[in-house]
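I have been asked to look over a protein record a colleague put together. Alongside the sequence sits a line of tokens, each denoting a local backbone shape. I have pasted the whole thing underneath without changing anything:
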Amino acid sequence: MKICVGLSGGVDSSVAALLLKQQGYDVFGMFMQNWHDTEGTLHGDCEWEEDRFVAELVARKLRIPFYFVDLSKQYRQRVVDYMFSEYEHGRTPNPDVLCNREIKFDAFLEKARSLGATHVATGHYCRKRRNPDGSWSLLEGVDPGKDQSYFLCQLSQEQLEAAIFPIGDLCKDEVRRLAAEADLPSADRKDSQGICFVGKVDLPVFLQQKLASVEGDVVEVFDQYYQDSAKYRKDEEIVRKFRSEGIEALSTCELEELSTPINYSDIKFETETYRSGKKHIKKTRYKANPWGVIAGRHEGAQFFTLGQRKGLAIGGHKDPLFVIATDVASNIVYVGEGESHKGLYRSCIRFPMDELHWICPGAGMSEGEVRRFRVRIRYRQPLQYATAIVRGDSLFVIFDEPQRSITPGQFAAFHTLPEEESNPVDAEAPELVLSAVIDR
């Protein structure tokens, strides 16, 4: 078996190559360049050149062949252009998930095969398992703090067949130890941050390459709004029904209602004129509104994501402000004060059935079927218990506990339940069986 290791210049991929070489495989390393532009990046112009230099040093240390491939055209078309489009429509994409599906295990795999490789190995902290029927399952990595199965949630069976994850059974400190013992040049390098193969960026500056800045209002939503909102009260009523009677008791209309986010467009601000000062100069101001207030200005709703607290530049509050919604069409950013603000939390998500990605295609659900999962809606979030049901052309998922900042454009990754709930430490790592993009 000839294996191509995607050497990134980091310690994880370096140790992956080290282990495969020690196990006697025919190994070669290949570094991919996926980005040329530097506008918006927070590091030096030549960061990728340093990564390539270290990757090549690692290959020399291990005495394996080293190759370089430029995939920047494919990366821009399949990942970056998608990013810009999603942000333009008020969604927050996950480029790392797309990079794995579209680049590392597609374009990069194709190049590796042209050089004679049968498999591609990476430094991901995850595992795969061959099932009795010949299919492959995707499992969490052993290190709970580094599990990266979330980033691989869109891989197909064909891609999993060709993938190897040599460090999935290791913890990070052990990987560092192995790198140090082998005197690898990457042993002490810090973990990479930011967008996959672009680096750490100033996101608004990065997005302004294609998305124009347009000034708009930041509206702070008060608690009174939820007390008066028929939609919010209805959602609470449906959740109570779910908890007492189960998801089967909910009608499709109730599930649709619960999965629809609150629309704050009914918060309107009227103006009034008044006279000010000794000269009674006529001025205009907004009338007081018990539901909210225009708290500030922003430079483009598309530059903000749900749950964000930085970049608002609005003071005068006891607790931080968080983004609870964005309206790109009207260019309004809605915020709420405090981490317990009602606008931050939702209980239900709807997924179109034709957009579900089952790791094992035969594991799908049928009409009316109910299944329990543990779900992750962002990287490193602890798995959350949830109940799912199929109704018509939709999969509805209700969480046991309301989830903070359910963000359109992000991926939800569904895992099986541990076989032994009473002793999860000894149970097999949950299998990642399903993923889908949150669309609203």
Observations:
- DSSP finds ten helices and 20 strands in the chain.
